[in-house]
Each structure stands twice: as C-alpha cells, then as structure tokens.
Amino acid sequence: SCINLGGCGSKEVQLSATAVIAPPECTIVGAIDTAICAGSVSGIYTGPDGMDAYEWSISPEGQGVSLSSTTGQSVTVSSTADAIPGAYTITLVTTKGSQTSVEDCSANLYIVYPPAVQDATVPLCYSEQAEAYIQLSTYDEKVRTDLSDISIEWFTSPERTTLIDQFGYLTVGDHTFYAIVTRNSTGCTAPAALTVSILANPVCPEATITKPSNWFTADGSIALIGHPIEGYIYTWDDPSGQTTATATGLNPFLD
After folding, report:
1. What is the pLDDT of residues 10-48, one digit of tens each?
2. Which of 22, 61, 76, 226 is deepest in the core (most CB within 10 A)?
3. Among 224, 213, 206, 225, which residue's Cα sits nearest to residue 250?
4. Whole-angstrom Cα distance, residue 206 to residue 229?
C-alpha cells in the first residue's frame, strides 16, 4: 500500500499477515462403541490419514485393558481374562506440523465378562446306561448353575471340534466331555469339562458265617470277605438295619 507522507512524497509499504493454521482433524473410525469379552481383542481403531503424529490413550488405566500402540495410526485393545468389566474411553490426539487437534476425539469400549463356569465330576453306575442313551444336557447345571441366557454345546475332545449330545455304554472308568458355555446376550463364551465316572456294579462277595451258639442267644454274625471297601454302602435286612461290612448279633430264631 502507499502511505502519504504529507508533502514529502509517499512510501510503498508491504504488509504481511501471519497465516492462521487450523488445528488438524481428528476422527476415529472402526470398532466404535463396541463390546468385547474379557480375555479377547477388539477390532481396529484408526485415526485420520496424513498426520505427523498420533497419541492414543485409554481410560481408566491399569485394569487389565491395554492398547496395542500409543503412537500408530491404528490400534487395537487387548483385555486379560480378569479385566475389570465396564466402560472404557479410547482417546486420540493428532499432530500436524506444530498444531495438535483440539476437538473431542474418542470412542467407547465395553468389557463384559464371559459366563462363570465350573468343571464337574459325576458318578454313574454301569447299569444305569442299560435302558437308554443319556443326554449330556442332563448335566448342563453341573458346569453352569444358572442356565438363564445360556447355551451349552458339548464336544468329544479338548479341541472342541466334534459335537456330541448323548452317550451310552461307556466302559468302567472316567470319561470326559468338553463344553462351550455361551452367554446369549453378549456372545461371550467359557470352556468347561464334565467327567462321567462309570462305576462297576457291585458283586455280592463271599461271606464268613458264624452261627449263633444256641437258639436263644443272638451271637451269630455274617462278615463279608475282603470288606469293608471305601465307597461301598452296606445295608443288612436284619431287625436293627446294620450298615457295616459285618453284621453281628444275629439269630434267625429270635428275629
């Protein structure tokens, strides 16, 4: 521009203005406002292209939830099996040149627990398999007490690849079946195992019989040879209903 110097001529002056640089954009795309099960990894969160730097953070911290990176354009969130359930906020600040983003740039992530389960063992007499196959769903409550909002699938091996829904005519011994327990509302799953312990049907053992000394004295006895054995229950059909491996005080003439 030209400045009039009041009779002394004029002078050309060049004016310049400092350019105003807008803060860089900040947007997060990807797995926004999602929920993951404790012990799993989230989808990918991605910041805008073309930034010089990215600074990610998650809040609250130190509760079993962590970011895969704090400086990359894209991150995932990992959670441990014992992560604290609830809402977490993922925040991004971007830098372009000397400017940092000022707008709110965050996403919510919710950690939810898988269903609580327990491994279980159930005894079953060999003869109880004789009439029909046994449905594994009969034992659902052994691995998960509260079955509301729950689905359970049973498998033949720890790899959980081959489904099974019933069994029968198992040999004497332990047989383990493997379950995946799913909470329907969240899709979270937990593994469980059920061991069916097939027990041999008891064989009536030989016995040593001591006759009463006379018709009028209750001093007879019957002792099962090789008994007692742990796990066996003894029930005698005598007036006192004895429950030991040896019944004493017997006299059939006085009963």
Report:
1. 555 554 545 567 788 889 998 877 899 999 999 999 999
2. 76
3. 213
4. 14
Which of these, 64, 54, 49, 56, lies nearest to 89 by C-alpha position? 56
For 137, list phi and psi in degrees, rounded to 5: -60, -20
- What sign does the dihedral 128-132-133-138 (CA atoms) show? negative
In a 3-state reduction of DSSP, which class is residue 234? coil
CA distance 111 to 77: 10
Q: How far is CA 26 from CA 89, 95, 98, 131, 206, in A?
A: 15, 9, 15, 68, 86
**What does the pLDDT read at residue 9?**
54
Do residues 240 and 218 make contact, with C-beta atoms less than 8 angstroms apart?
no
| Chain centroid offset of residue 57 CA | 28
Amino acid in position 214: N
The answer to whether 117 and 146 are in contact (CB under 8 A) is no
What does each C-alpha distance from 3 to 8, 17, 18, 130 come to in angstroms?
11, 18, 21, 114
**DSSP class of residue 60?**
S
Regions of the chain short of the pLDDT cut 70: 1-20, 130-131, 255
Contacts of 243 (CB under 8 A, 6+ apart): 233, 234, 235, 236
Q: For 91-206, where are the alpha helices, taking DSSP H only?
A: 140-143
For residue 24 the two structure tokens come to 């860089």
